[in-house]
Amino acid sequence: MKSSHRAMMLDQSDQPRRQGPPAPTAIVDGITLVGPSEYSPTESVKHTITDVLSILGNKALRQPGRSEERRLLVEQGIRHRVNFSRMAQRALGDPWADLHDTRRQEFVKLFVELIRDTMANKIDQYHENQILYLDEQRDGRFTCVRTNFIGSKIETSVDFRLERHSGDWLVYDLIIDGASIVKNYRTQFGGVDETEDAHREMI
Question: What is the mean pLDDT of the chain?
Fold first, then answer.
């Protein structure tokens, strides 16, 4: 990695500085979701986390019967900042090449749900606590934003690996306490027999 930036502490009341033109927004139940724009990698990660925190902390969305709506809003908040196709392809590994486009789309849809719930569950644990942005390390079109989620009893390191794609920095892997989400799912998927029937059941 070729460069790094000093650590930054997230103040949930502050808005990270944005570069370039204003990003498109959507407002749902008082929550403003900011679309993709010319963010730095760290700013992109901060906006993603801020969006998810806003949704998870919304009291109206915590009411019974609104859990599905809450999940969909989380998905909307991260969809434009995560390269789900790349993550799904890397997680599935070699069998990806044998899937038809329809099967690939079905698998990506499943993977979106997996990543959505993983990110929401992890961030929700630290909703009232601190997120420390340690540094940003770039290597060409790839970068790693290192963070610590600090709770009252536990601290978790989360590294966001991003790739420059069509002008935006998109997440393609999460490293939680040293373990890659992509590699973890690849191990799980690899435990299924790599036959057409197995793929059909898996996706």
Answer: 76
